From TrEMBL:
Organism classification: Bacteria, Pseudomonadati, Pseudomonadota, Betaproteobacteria, Burkholderiales
InterPro entries tied to this protein: DExx_box_DNA_helicase_dom_sf (IPR013986), DNA_helicase_UvrD-like_C (IPR014017), DNA_helicase_UvrD/REP (IPR000212), P-loop_NTPase (IPR027417), UvrD-like_ATP-bd (IPR014016)
Coiled-coil annotated residue ranges, if any: none
Name by which UniProt lists this protein: DNA 3'-5' helicase
Catalytic activity: Couples ATP hydrolysis with the unwinding of duplex DNA by translocating in the 3'-5' direction; ATP + H2O = ADP + phosphate + H(+)
Gene3D superfamilies per record: 1.10.10.160, P-loop containing nucleotide triphosphate hydrolases (3.40.50.300), PCRA, domain 4 (1.10.486.10)
Key words, A-Z: ATP-binding, DNA-binding, Helicase, Hydrolase, Isomerase, Nucleotide-binding
UniProt source species: Verminephrobacter aporrectodeae subsp. tuberculatae
EC number(s) recorded for this UniProt protein: 5.6.2.4
Domain UvrD-like helicase ATP-binding: 24-309
Every UvrD-like helicase C-terminal domain range: 310-617
Annotated spans, Disordered: 549-581
GO molecular function: helicase activity
Family named by the database record: Belongs to the helicase family. UvrD subfamily.
Composition skew (Pro residues), residue ranges: 562-571
Amino acid sequence: MFPQDPPSGAPQALAHLAASPLLAHLNSEQLAAVTLPAGHALILAGAGSGKTRVLTTRIAWLLQNGYATPGGVLAVTFTNKAAKEMVTRLSAMLPLNVRGMWIGTFHGLCNRLLRAHHRAAGLPQAFQILDTQDQLSAVKRLCKQYAVDDERFPPKQLAYFISGCKEEGLRPGSVPAHDSDARKKTEIYQLYEEQCQREGVVDFGELMLRSHELLRDNAAIRTHYQQRFAHILVDEFQDTSKLQYAWLKQFAGDTVDGRLQARGSVIAVGDDDQSIYAFRGARVGNMTDFVREFDVRQQIKLEQNYRSHSNILDSANALISHNSQRLGKNLRTVQGPGEPVRVYEAETDTQEARWMVEEIGQLVQHNGFERMEIAVLYRSNAQSRVIESALFNAGMPYRVYGGLRFFERAEIKHALAYLRLLENPHDDTSFLRVLNFPPRGIGARSVELLQDTARTAGCSLHDGVGAVAGKAGANLAAFVAMVRALRAQTQGLSLREIVEQMLESTGLVEHFRSEKEGADRIENLQELVNAAESFVMQEGLGRDAVALPTQSPASQGLDPDSPAPDEPPARMPDGDTGETLSPLAAFLSHAALEAGDNQARTGQDAVQLMTVHASKGLEFDGVFIGGMEEGLFPHENSANARDALEEERRLMYVAITRARKRLYLSRAHTRLLHGKTRYNAPSRFFDELPEGALKWITSRPRGWGIPDSGALNGYSSSAKDPFGFQSKTPSSPPAVLQEAAPAQGLRAGMAVFHNRFGEGRVLSVEGRGDDARTQVHFPRHGTKWLVLSIAKLTVVDC
DNA sequence: CCCGTCCGGTTTTTT
DNA sequence: ACCGGACGGG
């Protein structure tokens, strides 16, 4: 998974620095980055350039040479996986304990900060964290309560709006309310905030925003951390949002008269060419802002790639050079050209998948590839189905990434809701989730009654139960009593025992035992017990301390971090020395912040299937990228705006650079999508790859020939189109116009003329007869859908 | 309360 | 085509 050591050591001039074993095997760029003097720096780290290694070695080097103390290091990553990786590698490099360091995800560190300063942040110490699902259900509940028109304001959209506002750093009071719609949404945002505050819960956005405000508004706390963290390191900086960047600045120093007076050194590591998360708030512009606002003097590019052969790298470089907005970077390798990038054009998506499976079989059988080292990447999840079924039919083991993660499964969320109620009975979201699960005769009527009562009294549902009379009241009271009894029973038990007792008392396991599909769920619940057993205490994140042995009474709380000896004398709690959380509360935070594995677990050597997004940061010997078609990749929703198109191109860049030895690109003429057959033109990205690095292997003889597979399934399109496209270079459209596939002889790639829009290029054609429609891109008017029976189109050029 | 049926959405995703 | 959520009858 990690690039091999560079073949030669550092250049002579720097050789003395490399004397330390820590620095051995670094190339000169890496060495320069690791040994940067104090000050802010931007490291542009290309794909496969040893970025993580540089980051961790930098920290180790700072510590080893006494330039930093563990307590003075703050390292932020984006995912738990990356944080864990950093901790693991760091502890392999240094005997030192990593306990004093703050290494974790943005949200994990926010959690740590807010727990330590919950009072100043205005939160209960045991605040619960809402994940996206929880947030949505909280919004739905709110909408119901205030009778919000869910046609006009769908809860989903409201949740999105609220998250967006927080991401921008906006509280309801400062949201610009242009129209009545915006005002109404903001009003709901306000109510949502009040609800969360009342219930003692925070969503992901709130974790970030609240801790940003905590630092911004509390000089003592801010100064404390600014003095403490002399070294701040940020991974995947290109993925940071506006708020995350603002958050970092609070740690770095105060802004006086518009100028940032940073105390510590901030090192941002990132790759603008791999910025693929703009759609969820990432702002590549943070990189240039960082250089300007921090007055960055040191910029280092890591361009030496240790991963791929040069045909692959050349392809990546050529492709990305078509982007206009770049900081500029060119990957190089000392490995030879290697195999050409193979391009395959299939008739149908099914055939494309079948070809992939065949090819994978070859790689495994004849080229000694491990299945695990082969990945099939696609732009969208919908594409996985055909590939899966082809693999399945061939009996080839595979593993699909994505889907529900462990802590997101319904039965697990139910169990967690009970555990949360033990910590905080006023968490209405959790209360409602399990109030009648397993069923205990509390129907919608009773719930409404209770909600009304609680609303009138201005209290939580839990506290409102006493005021509900009658049969409904009795059932409700029984539920509350059950939870209360459970709370009493679990006093002093270990985390594992608490979970077991909960599963027992609430009847969850019992309930699933009687369900026909309950076996899996029971297994998952058992897995939750195991997770509790092996839960490693983590304040902040990425701190994998010791697994809890059968621990001393829970009431003792966590063994607090022994403050690092070199800790600056601090009177305030700072996440290391502050009040500690109960193991249960810590476990619940862990569950919310780290949803766990989402990959079907198999010990087996299996082919890996995933979206291109999910492949970021991974590498494989062989990589297949399917569906290289206009509309799919680049995706049709992105093809028209330049920024969006450039992000698609970066996405393709990420996909290409995953491959070490073999890269395959493929496309299909015909694809079944949303139940309709689509005819897609080849992806424009083919035009942007260097012809010399490619090899077109479509197993159809050039020019004439019997299609080897086109007629296999009797697809109507292949019957009418016996020759398919000719196998040829991608940059020019097919030389010979074949007979119409779908309608009026129109095919993707053709140039057409429209009386009003002028000349344009056909992107796709779908449907037949009177329903036939075509998507045409007109240079001056953008992309239009035209119904063939209505629009007058003339074919200009094939 | 459970189960069937209809309807809508369907790029990418972490925390 | 297909999945998940919402709704209504048994």
